[in-house]
């Protein structure tokens, strides 16, 4: 008898296997019991026929409640009607624990109740599918950047300054001085790019922004590549290749998960480079044409604006060349037009908003010093960043992709709170 997992049963058709599992659900039809089994790798139905098993096994199966744990021994059968394509004819049940009064039943529960029981909600088929797709995106991220010659570098989480000069930071004491939880590793990644050429980081970031929208989390994960000798247009090409890569990876490797989520895969099949590009100027005009008469040049876009822009395209769209005064101090001005910078936001279709923000960075020491003064960045904690322009400065670009928004978009789910195992929200630090 082979011990295996649900995800591997296709290797053992018509063979007896042993699987450690939990009961996701159960129903009975007289002399047949149907056990909906899960083991973390997948879901499968186990069929217990009274006339084909011992009395002990039949009674053990009858005693099982939702989320009871067990070893199940049975024969793998091919079954095209089953979601996974396979079923298990149960020969023996070895009960490990009978669960009592499991709080999340098959009936409907409110969101707050489910969030309070997030540690258990993770076991459901929907949450399993979402987090498996998240895992696929993470795997594809490493594959893409490794194949493209990037080195992974880990920036610090505790920093002495803000990457973007914002005040939405979590403050802490670092022995005898102030410190902050990182909202971006970008400045450190620029230092790494000037040492290794092409680098990327992948880690948690924190923003103390008091936002309750479906697109925001307090703690979230960012993928932040930085590239020496790479200018704005080349960076856009790398971004669209990366997003295309992870989308196709999810399509190819998460078919069952996408089916569980009822995701319209035709929308994902279209996510292939190149992506359309429009300038900020064009975006303002497009919005005015759509009835947003109150939007003026120089204002940043909110969620309704991004959604309206995305509706005009069937792929993610780059909005480029934003006004200098609404973007971060380190972004390089357009050489032909100093009131805009060489930057782009990538807006996902279907109302999911910005998933990437990126730019070419200022490489001129004098100009960066001028930007420091304009943004009143007098903190000595920024001095090392200036030094990067003193010793072998080169054109360089980078971007950041928010993992949770990307997961929400590719899964087709409404709220980012389901895209991370234990979300941190404005009103939630538990569980």
TrEMBL record:
<keyword id="KW-0963">Cytoplasm</keyword>
<keyword id="KW-0547">Nucleotide-binding</keyword>
<dbReference type="InterPro" id="IPR006195">
    <property type="entry name" value="aa-tRNA-synth_II"/>
</dbReference>
<dbReference type="GO" id="GO:0005524">
    <property type="term" value="F:ATP binding"/>
</dbReference>
<dbReference type="Pfam" id="PF00152">
    <property type="entry name" value="tRNA-synt_2"/>
</dbReference>
<dbReference type="GO" id="GO:0016740">
    <property type="term" value="F:transferase activity"/>
</dbReference>
<dbReference type="GO" id="GO:0003676">
    <property type="term" value="F:nucleic acid binding"/>
</dbReference>
<dbReference type="GO" id="GO:0006421">
    <property type="term" value="P:asparaginyl-tRNA aminoacylation"/>
</dbReference>
<keyword id="KW-0030">Aminoacyl-tRNA synthetase</keyword>
<keyword id="KW-0436">Ligase</keyword>
<dbReference type="InterPro" id="IPR004365">
    <property type="entry name" value="NA-bd_OB_tRNA"/>
</dbReference>
<comment type="similarity">
    <text>Belongs to the class-II aminoacyl-tRNA synthetase family.</text>
</comment>
<dbReference type="InterPro" id="IPR045864">
    <property type="entry name" value="aa-tRNA-synth_II/BPL/LPL"/>
</dbReference>
<dbReference type="GO" id="GO:0140096">
    <property type="term" value="F:catalytic activity, acting on a protein"/>
</dbReference>
<dbReference type="GO" id="GO:0005737">
    <property type="term" value="C:cytoplasm"/>
</dbReference>
<feature type="domain" description="Aminoacyl-transfer RNA synthetases class-II family profile">
    <location>
        <begin position="131"/>
        <end position="431"/>
    </location>
</feature>
<dbReference type="Pfam" id="PF01336">
    <property type="entry name" value="tRNA_anti-codon"/>
</dbReference>
<keyword id="KW-0067">ATP-binding</keyword>
<dbReference type="GO" id="GO:0004816">
    <property type="term" value="F:asparagine-tRNA ligase activity"/>
</dbReference>
<dbReference type="InterPro" id="IPR002312">
    <property type="entry name" value="Asp/Asn-tRNA-synth_IIb"/>
</dbReference>
<comment type="subunit">
    <text>Homodimer.</text>
</comment>
<dbReference type="InterPro" id="IPR004522">
    <property type="entry name" value="Asn-tRNA-ligase"/>
</dbReference>
<dbReference type="InterPro" id="IPR004364">
    <property type="entry name" value="Aa-tRNA-synt_II"/>
</dbReference>
<keyword id="KW-0648">Protein biosynthesis</keyword>
<protein>
    <recommendedName>
        <fullName>Asparagine--tRNA ligase</fullName>
        <ecNumber>6.1.1.22</ecNumber>
    </recommendedName>
</protein>
<dbReference type="InterPro" id="IPR012340">
    <property type="entry name" value="NA-bd_OB-fold"/>
</dbReference>
